[in-house]
Amino acid sequence: MVVDQTRDTMETSKEQARKVYHAMVRARILEAKFSSLYKAGQIVGGVYLGKGQEAVSASLGANLEWGQDIFAPLIRDQAGRTAFGEDMLDATRTYLGSVKGPMKGRDGNIHRGRPQEGLLAMISHLGTSVSVLGGMLKARQLRGTLGTSVGATCVGDGATSTGSFHEGLNYVAVEKLPVVVVVADNQFAYSTPNNKQFACDDLVDRAKGYGVPGHSVDGTDFLACVETMTAATEAARRGEGPQMVVAKLLRLGGHGEHDDGSYVPEELKGSRYGRDCMEVGKAQMIEKGWLTEEELKQWQDDAKVEVQTAVTTAQKEDAPDPYKESWTALSRGSFREW
Amino acid sequence: MVVDQTRDTMETSKEQARKVYHAMVRARILEAKFSSLYKAGQIVGGVYLGKGQEAVSASLGANLEWGQDIFAPLIRDQAGRTAFGEDMLDATRTYLGSVKGPMKGRDGNIHRGRPQEGLLAMISHLGTSVSVLGGMLKARQLRGTLGTSVGATCVGDGATSTGSFHEGLNYVAVEKLPVVVVVADNQFAYSTPNNKQFACDDLVDRAKGYGVPGHSVDGTDFLACVETMTAATEAARRGEGPQMVVAKLLRLGGHGEHDDGSYVPEELKGSRYGRDCMEVGKAQMIEKGWLTEEELKQWQDDAKVEVQTAVTTAQKEDAPDPYKESWTALSRGSFREW
Amino acid sequence: MPVTYIDAIRDAQYKALEEDERVFLYGQDIGKFGGAFKATKGLQDKWPDRVMDAPISEDAMVGMAIGAAIEGMRPVVEMQFADFSSVGFNQIVNNAATHFYRTGIPVPITVRMPSGGTPGSGPFHSQSIETLYAHYPGCIVLTPATVSDAYHMLLEGISMDDPVIYCEHKLLYRWLKSDNYDGDGLPIGKARITRSGKHATVVAYSAMVHEAVRAAEILKAEGGWEIEVVDLRSVKPLDTDTVMASVARTGRLLAVGEAFPWGGVTAEIVSRITAEGFHLLDAPPMRLNAKDSPIPYHPKLWAAHRPTPESICHALKKLLNY
Amino acid sequence: MPVTYIDAIRDAQYKALEEDERVFLYGQDIGKFGGAFKATKGLQDKWPDRVMDAPISEDAMVGMAIGAAIEGMRPVVEMQFADFSSVGFNQIVNNAATHFYRTGIPVPITVRMPSGGTPGSGPFHSQSIETLYAHYPGCIVLTPATVSDAYHMLLEGISMDDPVIYCEHKLLYRWLKSDNYDGDGLPIGKARITRSGKHATVVAYSAMVHEAVRAAEILKAEGGWEIEVVDLRSVKPLDTDTVMASVARTGRLLAVGEAFPWGGVTAEIVSRITAEGFHLLDAPPMRLNAKDSPIPYHPKLWAAHRPTPESICHALKKLLNY
Ligand SMILES: Cc1ncc(C[n+]2csc(CCOP(=O)(O)OP(=O)(O)O)c2C)c(N)n1
Ligand SMILES: Cc1ncc(C[n+]2csc(CCOP(=O)(O)OP(=O)(O)O)c2C)c(N)n1
Ligand SMILES: [Mg+2]
Ligand SMILES: [Mg+2]
Fold first, then answer.
1. Domain's final residue, options D178, D209, D233
2. Residue C263 sits in which domain range?
3. Which residues of chain D form beta strands (DSSP E)?
4. Which residues line ligand 2 (CB under 6 A)?
């Protein structure tokens, strides 16, 4: 019996790990495409990548069920979105400004979402999603439809300095809502290193002050991420209240594709946190026998096709037409005044 | 030699305790007067008392030197202001709306200050003083005039939920400025009990998350307050960076004099934190032989005279005259447009 | 039993809670305590789960309401004072107010703003900041001046799909009384002719409607002038048509507001009327606002900071004599 | 070597740091990195202590600056984008802007606001929110449109005792060039006649000055119309006299701004000119602003959201044909 249980757990872990890694592969390839489109001048505005942060993001997203749970991604969560179930076309259409995208060209890049399907559309102001997520869950609680749904959000080290983040986290803690708050501590906020951002040894030291459990994980360690995010999400789902996860890692690139990130010291890049979680994950998966080189190749090839199809589709689509635009912020069109 | 040092320390403690207690006596009597003036309709707007919080406030204020240190008081800091050196006339004139007060009738009650002498004039928005205090100290650091000056501020349990408080505390921590942040945890923010305000066991649990030392004290225990505030202020003065002190106690009254505070449960009032720090302090002082009943009586009598003089003076003074008012928010009068 | 303006606010919330289970109330001290102004008195007793106390976190309060609204609820958030909404400002103008345009999903939140000055309240408990929320696209901004409007517009606002900023004037809370909440059925978006006249039009909103009426009475008594007073009721949308029709009758316009003088409601009115009704004007349209300084604490200063019947009369005389 | 608008901002900060040791700079990523727009490039190398990186805490950034200013310093705070100042809004309007009135102690802070739209920047990196800071009493609000003004007005602003909101337009950063910073010596508070004309006056500020000039050129070419363009330079104080004198010459007024349409700069101008210069007007004064929706991401939508030379021409033709 004991043996069986272990096997089951192993099977679950394997399936989960494969799900996460698959999303990582797809996200990495999609983002690489965005980067080259940007460099070719085909994406206007900024492109912000999650390169190096896929393990953290995807292992969170893979724990969430589309249509049931809620995800409030931030800048570097392509992998988490993919794992959660966001259609690649949504991302591609948004970046390319197709009128068919979920934002219809009105908002761009990482600001997309499908809020009624559980994917929040972030505003730029950092830290603001935590309370919104809390309100969504609170609504379900009030209506008795919360069930075992959970909400999750990611922020960076820099976003923890915002008053909004503090108020939001305090709120969900007071209400003991089923929330996972992941801090992807990539050592920098744009160019600003942690020592100019906060003074505690480790951001996980903040958890106790909010009265929530804190989990630490090496964000480059693929399997550790899968395990920690699953544990945190399950704890939230079990009704243990908000969970704070702090993952340490590095951005493997600039803040956005306009930035070369040259301010990141070489020794940090050469450190443990400079590892590429894709590489680490690959080695771990292959060592465990949970993935073969051939399968991986297949995933990659499939993802390339998928990405290319999305791009081709979006590129053929119309841009928004200013003459057909509603030009009102209100849902009640009759109140439009200009 | 050892004996001598102990005697010196004892002497210092005694002097410090007397200074603190004296300020408490004066503040209590002054505030009682404000309360009766308010009830007699002679003070317009709100009256907010520090009754029950004098030990916390005065033991902080007594560690600060007027003209050298900076104090950013909040709602319940009459005792701290008095201990720091604020003239009773400033308080009285402000409450009574005399044009001769430091705010000239333009702002009222607890919003008064003399910023260039180191006493900040708070705005109502909670939490906003911490960063301002930080900026004042930073300015001195930049100019090389910081020396051993420190800054101190008080906030309530409720104010810790503001984003502004979080950003401010994080800022002073990052810059390792000599600041003492006192949280007077009086279990309520207006009518809102702590369990609706935060979810950690004790607000001092937040200190570590900011990377600052946390001190706990029973805010009704007079001598403990004197000791803790002195230790915290001295640590800040020695360059050990911000210190967070959490004092637990109860407000011995309503939120303001318009409020009877009837929502505070009787069992809490009967608990340790419901003690009156004035009573506790008196017993402690007398037991130690640091104060006699006669001296106390004298302090009280003197304070009554002092308060009465201040009130009589302020009452005779003019109210601000709208016809003489500048009606511009700018120091550059030539930019006045209306 | 007469009802007051604050009764209207409470009773409208009562009715909204009773009739629509998507409605809930959220704010500091609004539960057992009933709110700083008692606008939610007794409501938590009846709906323990749907009347919730908030931490002192205006940003999170609005954020929470946005989230709940996205999920289909109709949150009513009480700011303890409008002045403190400056801390929830970002979530209102950048999150709630942009959400429908960005995503197609409306955010039906109502934010109650205890606004306006009272003697002794000082710079941070007296502000009228409707301009902030009207300037940004995406909010509906209500400024009821009567007991009946306070009641019906709050209910109507809660029923709307867009974010609603409900500016309630603290000076009217207990002073303004009515026999009942019966109104004239005007919907949001329509202004009201509060007093008809023919020599000049005063456009006002919120508490200033009453000061304008007082001024009109003084001028009537003094010189037989007949001043028309238009109550805007909402400053966004702003009912230009009703104002225009009034100006067409009177040829003279004075816009009065309690807010700061630069920009804002009165400037918006004057700009609209001159753009479309230039030919109707027999005299330059005028504005009267509060002074361009913080709102002073001292009652004597305060009384001179905002428009008064006297200063409105003064402005009107200039207008009439043009 | 020509200098750009962003050079002017950097060089003015250089000069301020060099000449006044009370000046320091504070903002996110402004140190070694030189700022998101490189407005502080190289400055930390020269003044390691006086060019400081901030945490992502706009409220605390402004609070810190207020404190330092009270102590006699002259902080210059960089918002990474004007849009994020919504989070520092409370400290600006309620703390910095009220402090002198309340205490008699001035707060000489300068807050730099990278403002205005650029293609693809979207709703939260494009805003022009001068109205917020001009509506509240207590701030001076600068909106330079030229390289020389960007330079001199920043320096002059830093030297002023009152809080200064310095709105710099991102679209002009690298596009707008000049041979040098030589200016015409106009002080803050004075508007400039950028282009003289006699048929109509366009009042604009910041980037819209250039769009207005383009429109004027088109109309000149098309029909020989001579359009006068007034550059306000600061929207508070607002130089009514210069605008009035222009309207006295042309009889026609169009106020153009890139901000949202409700209230704001253009409404303030129209209201002032009609109040005092009604008799000068041969046609109803008009406004042209951005649309009443969030600023869209897509360049095609964005270009139609704000006034353009074409839409200015369109409005001017209506005005000229009245
Ligand atoms: C309130 C606010 N201030 C400033 C910004 C500008 N900004 C965008 S991303 C960023 C850095 C974010 O750093 P971090 O939170 O660590 O996330 P990372 O980029 O490292 O993933 C900044 C300063 C913002 N978006 N919101
Ligand atoms: C940002 C903000 N929101 C709301 C208020 C209104 N308000 C004034 S005092 C107070 C309660 C403060 O509680 P706490 O911080 O615990 O201090 P205490 O009154 O208990 O000393 C509230 C909600 C405010 N001043 N500022
Ligand atoms: Mg980071
Ligand atoms: Mg308290």
1. D178
2. 192-320
3. 3-4, 23-27, 51-53, 74-78, 110-115, 140-142, 164-169, 177-178, 192-195, 200-204, 227-231, 234-236, 253-256, 286-288
4. B 75-76, 124-126, 155-159, 162, 184, 186, 188-190, 251, 255; C 28, 56, 58, 80, 84, 87
